[in-house]
Amino acid sequence: MTFSGLSSLILALGAVQLSNAASIKRATCADGNTVTNAACCVLFPILEDIQTNLFDGGECGEEVHESLRLTFHDAIGFSPSRGGGGADGSLITFSEIETPFHANLGIDEIVEAQKPFVAKHNISAGDFIQFAGAVGVSNCPGAPRLQFFLGRPDAVAPAPDLTVPEPFDSVDSILARFADAGFSPAEVVALLASHTIAAADNVDPTVFTDRTPFDSTPSVFDSQFFVETQLRGTSFPGTAGNQGEVESPLRGEMRLQSDSEVYPRTACEWQSFVNNQSKLQSAFKAAMLKLSLVAQDKSKLVDCSDVIPVPPTLNAAAHFPAGLTKNDVEQACAATPFPALTTDPGPVTAVPPV
Ligand code: HEM
């Protein structure tokens, strides 16, 4: 083919692509919103309802954190050998069986808070849990815009017990449990980015009136969780000797034994998230999509990701909390040095409860 023949072919291909793009029509919903697929229109009233009445007007607060935890506890309820329907809403549908499982301690609060929304709107519990998680995360500055697929059938049976990892489980058994449900160690690290917008209510009974954050910035989706889990632990936020808890580097901060053990096992992957917001977002987004589809048939679901709001951006670099420096890092990744970070000015950081 001559050069001019080749360039006309390229131009023609370009025109075909353009006309395909132009032919993708967006549907206009009754409320004026536009979406790629009209089946997604039903989600806008639910979005508005939960932002107002579940998430306190669009905050990245307690109900968002709990709703994100719930996406995990529902979805991980699947094992190829032991059954369970994964992200099927069984934690709501069979709540009287699943909420008493030891690993689900405290999850009953958000289960009970979400139930009236499921009853009020025409949506399955499995869809609602994942939708609420994705909408909730969109309230957290720095978070990725999570994807959401609609159409999960109702759960037919409760998940078996012991599918949700415990903070006192060995790292071998935690990684084996995730592998059983289809997740690699790198995906586990990506999912644990969720602990950057998280706090514990039930790990230390002496501080149970307060929720104790896992990092110093529990209302924003940043990489501080990955920074602070690499700093030498020096004290407990409450008492010593609680199952599943180890010393943290900051007053008022909680460190789970599981996080402290997954870190050295996955050291360079873990460290790679420090101050790398784009990796933090893309890896979490991909792993959360996979989590939201555990044991579901994606080909039967409708992609309604364009209903999920775009999260606010975050313009803050990772840092050492005031009083701490790179001398406090317990470096486990041998291949790459710890990134250079500045230390916050001021007195030694203490993390307030949330
Ligand atoms: C190794 C696996 C994991 C273990 C052992 C674990 C354990 C825990 C524990 C013990 C708590 C504190 C609960 C409380 O006291 O109220 C917690 C909180 C939380 N977890 Fe995990 N988790 C794991 C993985 C995940 C994953 C994969 C996600 C989500 C994708 C997640 C999301 C959360 C969130 C958002 C909270 C905070 C809840 C709140 O602030 O109310 N966790 N986790």
TrEMBL record:
<dbReference type="GO" id="GO:0000302">
    <property type="term" value="P:response to reactive oxygen species"/>
</dbReference>
<feature type="disulfide bond">
    <location>
        <begin position="40"/>
        <end position="304"/>
    </location>
</feature>
<keyword id="KW-0964">Secreted</keyword>
<feature type="binding site">
    <location>
        <position position="196"/>
    </location>
    <ligand>
        <name>Ca(2+) 2</name>
    </ligand>
</feature>
<keyword id="KW-0325">Glycoprotein</keyword>
<feature type="binding site">
    <location>
        <position position="222"/>
    </location>
    <ligand>
        <name>Ca(2+) 2</name>
    </ligand>
</feature>
<dbReference type="GO" id="GO:0034599">
    <property type="term" value="P:cellular response to oxidative stress"/>
</dbReference>
<feature type="binding site">
    <location>
        <position position="90"/>
    </location>
    <ligand>
        <name>Ca(2+) 1</name>
    </ligand>
</feature>
<dbReference type="InterPro" id="IPR002016">
    <property type="entry name" value="Haem_peroxidase"/>
</dbReference>
<feature type="binding site">
    <location>
        <position position="217"/>
    </location>
    <ligand>
        <name>Ca(2+) 2</name>
    </ligand>
</feature>
<dbReference type="GO" id="GO:0020037">
    <property type="term" value="F:heme binding"/>
</dbReference>
<dbReference type="InterPro" id="IPR001621">
    <property type="entry name" value="Ligninase"/>
</dbReference>
<dbReference type="InterPro" id="IPR019793">
    <property type="entry name" value="Peroxidases_heam-ligand_BS"/>
</dbReference>
<keyword id="KW-0349">Heme</keyword>
<keyword id="KW-0479">Metal-binding</keyword>
<feature type="binding site">
    <location>
        <position position="74"/>
    </location>
    <ligand>
        <name>Ca(2+) 1</name>
    </ligand>
</feature>
<keyword id="KW-0106">Calcium</keyword>
<feature type="binding site">
    <location>
        <position position="86"/>
    </location>
    <ligand>
        <name>Ca(2+) 1</name>
    </ligand>
</feature>
<dbReference type="InterPro" id="IPR010255">
    <property type="entry name" value="Haem_peroxidase_sf"/>
</dbReference>
<keyword id="KW-0408">Iron</keyword>
<keyword id="KW-1015">Disulfide bond</keyword>
<feature type="binding site">
    <location>
        <position position="88"/>
    </location>
    <ligand>
        <name>Ca(2+) 1</name>
    </ligand>
</feature>
<feature type="disulfide bond">
    <location>
        <begin position="268"/>
        <end position="333"/>
    </location>
</feature>
<dbReference type="Pfam" id="PF00141">
    <property type="entry name" value="peroxidase"/>
</dbReference>
<feature type="binding site">
    <location>
        <position position="215"/>
    </location>
    <ligand>
        <name>Ca(2+) 2</name>
    </ligand>
</feature>
<protein>
    <recommendedName>
        <fullName>Peroxidase</fullName>
        <ecNumber>1.11.1.-</ecNumber>
    </recommendedName>
</protein>
<comment type="similarity">
    <text>Belongs to the peroxidase family. Ligninase subfamily.</text>
</comment>
<keyword id="KW-0560">Oxidoreductase</keyword>
<dbReference type="InterPro" id="IPR044831">
    <property type="entry name" value="Ccp1-like"/>
</dbReference>
<feature type="domain" description="Plant heme peroxidase family profile">
    <location>
        <begin position="107"/>
        <end position="337"/>
    </location>
</feature>
<dbReference type="GO" id="GO:0046872">
    <property type="term" value="F:metal ion binding"/>
</dbReference>
<feature type="disulfide bond">
    <location>
        <begin position="29"/>
        <end position="41"/>
    </location>
</feature>
<dbReference type="Pfam" id="PF11895">
    <property type="entry name" value="Peroxidase_ext"/>
</dbReference>
<dbReference type="InterPro" id="IPR019794">
    <property type="entry name" value="Peroxidases_AS"/>
</dbReference>
<feature type="active site" description="Proton acceptor">
    <location>
        <position position="73"/>
    </location>
</feature>
<dbReference type="GO" id="GO:0042744">
    <property type="term" value="P:hydrogen peroxide catabolic process"/>
</dbReference>
<feature type="site" description="Transition state stabilizer">
    <location>
        <position position="69"/>
    </location>
</feature>
<keyword id="KW-0732">Signal</keyword>
<feature type="disulfide bond">
    <location>
        <begin position="60"/>
        <end position="140"/>
    </location>
</feature>
<dbReference type="InterPro" id="IPR024589">
    <property type="entry name" value="Ligninase_C"/>
</dbReference>
<feature type="signal peptide">
    <location>
        <begin position="1"/>
        <end position="21"/>
    </location>
</feature>
<keyword id="KW-0376">Hydrogen peroxide</keyword>
